[in-house]
Amino acid sequence: MAAIDKPKTTAAAPRKRAAPLLSDADAADKGESLSSVARVFAILGAIGDSGQIGISELSQRLSLSKTTVHRMLQTLKALGYVTQEVETERYRLTIRLFELGAKALESVDLVREADIEMRRIGHATREAVHLGTFDEDAIIYIHKIDADYGLRMQSRIGRRNPLHSTAIGKVLLAWMEPAEAREVLSHIELRKSTAKTLSSAEAVMSILPQVRAQGYGEDIEEQEEGLRCLAVPVFDRFGRVIAGLSVSFPTMRCGADTKLHYVALLKAAGAAVSARLGYREPAQEAAEVTHPG
What domains, with CATH codes, occur in the chain? Predict the structure, then answer.
């Protein structure tokens, strides 16, 4: 990450009143939901600029009624994004926004570190390589390397696919606690994409121990007919699985030796990316404790 230059210390300039672009009168024209979202971010920005601020000052600065400001602050407070000082009754931001920012930075680091290994796999296999993460009730692709072949998986960065019928999804579920995986599955529609799709929570749960034991997940024409996929986990420095790394290919191009080769490539790549993100395998940590340098 590039270093950020520290600004020179200067006297604080008088704070200007924000232009009334979000006034109450605009709500009817812009649509209530859009207006509300814009106001929330305006409030968060104003609090961030001030450090601490009261309702009256927020109301004046943003040209919003005190009632509107108070209502939105109470919502932000309930969600954990702001807190109110008891003595001054002024509001300030919590660390929750920092946590969101840290997750964004983590994703940037993940893609950057994974790209090296993904290109290596793509060069070795000439097949499509994907990096996917958990997104509420599905997986979402955050990076990809296209296959060299004309016959290949059609995908794009930002595309969402089901958890239960994809190799990456199975990997993400397998490294969750069983109760958590079951809870996730209970809130999603286990739609059958092909005749081979596992369409019940029990069926999906039954294969997760094997996925974890063998160290990779597999989709054999469960998401798309004629297409197979293999995936391995990527760990962060805390030992959490934060993504899955996969290679997808037509069934007609997969033999027993091909699968073994791809699994070996994926496991090596997954381990390399995880190590770059700060992950150390338990055996490695134990060895370092037993035989310190």
Answer: 24-94 (1.10.10.10), 103-286 (3.30.450.40)
Helix (H, G, I), strand (E, B) or coil at 169: helix
Residues 72-85: tens digit of each pLDDT? 999 999 999 999 99
**Looking at residue 19, what is its pLDDT?**
42
- Asked if 251 and 227 count as a contact pair (C-beta separation under 8 A), the reply is yes
Nearest CA-CA partner of 216 in 177, 181, 261? 261
Own/partner contacts of 90-98, CB < 8 Å, gap of 24 or more, are 90/52, 90/53, 90/54, 91/47, 91/52, 91/53, 91/54, 91/55, 91/58, 92/47, 92/51, 92/52, 92/53, 93/44, 93/47, 93/48, 97/44
Tokens representing 130 are 């994907």
Q: Please, which residues have CB within 8 angstroms of residue 93's CB and are 6 or more apart in sequence?
A: 44, 47, 48, 81, 82
Three-state helix/strand/coil letters over 47-81: HHHHCCECHHHHHHHHCCCHHHHHHHHHHHHHHCC
pTM: predicted TM-score of the whole model, two decimal places: 0.64
CB 217 within 8 A of CB 244: yes
186 three-state secondary structure: helix
Distance CA 228, CA 268 (A): 20
> Is 186:177 a contact under the CB 8 Å cutoff?
no
Residue whose tokens read 């070996």: 264
